[in-house]
Amino acid sequence: MIKKTLITLGLIALLVGTLVAQPMMNGRNRNMADNCDNNGKQFRMEQGRMGHHQAKGDHRQHHRKGDGLHVGMMIIHNAEELELKDSQIEDIKDIASTFHKLANVTKAELENLRIDKREAMMNKNYSEAKKVTKAIFSKKEELELKEIDAKKDIMDVLTETQQEKFETLCKKGPRK
């Protein structure tokens, strides 16, 4: 019963997080593992490259791997096997939520920077375009480092025994 409740809560949190974050997300494929779970999705809507989806009002977005959206979710999904306490689950959810909020803001900032770069290029202001490009990569680096910090903080919530069990689960691969 507890396992079903945890799974249901995890799925609800994942669904709500995805629905809330989806309109603001934008970025490139980073191929970054997510606590051994590299099934994270990233959505990107590329202007001018959407083909038949570019019709007015059609806001379909393309799936990309790895944007940290599932930080800690694999641990939460295996809470029963890892024998997590309720306080650990709450701590992990808090860390993941804080990261997701930061990621949403950063991705919105990145999109604004991309717009600035596009405008600079259209105005043939190449020095400004270079400056904005540097800012874009600085923001991306900042987000990547925050994701690593969040994952480290989540692993620090686990005991050594739980960390060892988790590593074993990761090596086994996904359950079928």
**H/E series:** HEEHHHHH
Average residue-wise pLDDT? 75
Return Rg in Å.
Answer: 19 Å
Dominant shape: elongated
Uncertain stretches = 22-67
User: Structural class given helices, strands, pairing?
Assistant: mainly alpha
Largest sheet properties: 2 strands, antiparallel
Helix percentage:
55-70%
Discrete helix count:
6
Terminal residue distance? 20 Å
Strand-residue proportion = under 5%
Adjacency order of strands in the biggest sheet? 1-2
Q: Find the count of extended strands (DSSP E, 2+ residues).
A: 2
Q: Helices, strands, pairings?
A:
Blueprint: H1 2-21, E1 41-44, E2 62-65, H2 73-77, H3 79-82, H4 86-122, H5 126-157, H6 160-172
Helix pairs in contact: 4-5
Summarize the structure.
The protein has 176 residues and is mainly alpha-helical. The chain contains 6 helices and 2 strands.
List keywords for this structure.
single chain; about 180 residues; mainly alpha; two-stranded antiparallel sheet; 6 helices; about 65% helix; elongated
What does this structure look like?
By secondary structure, this protein is mostly helical. It has helices spanning 2-21, 73-77, 79-82, 86-122, 126-157, 160-172, and strands at residues 41-44, 62-65. Mean pLDDT is 75; it is low at 22-67.
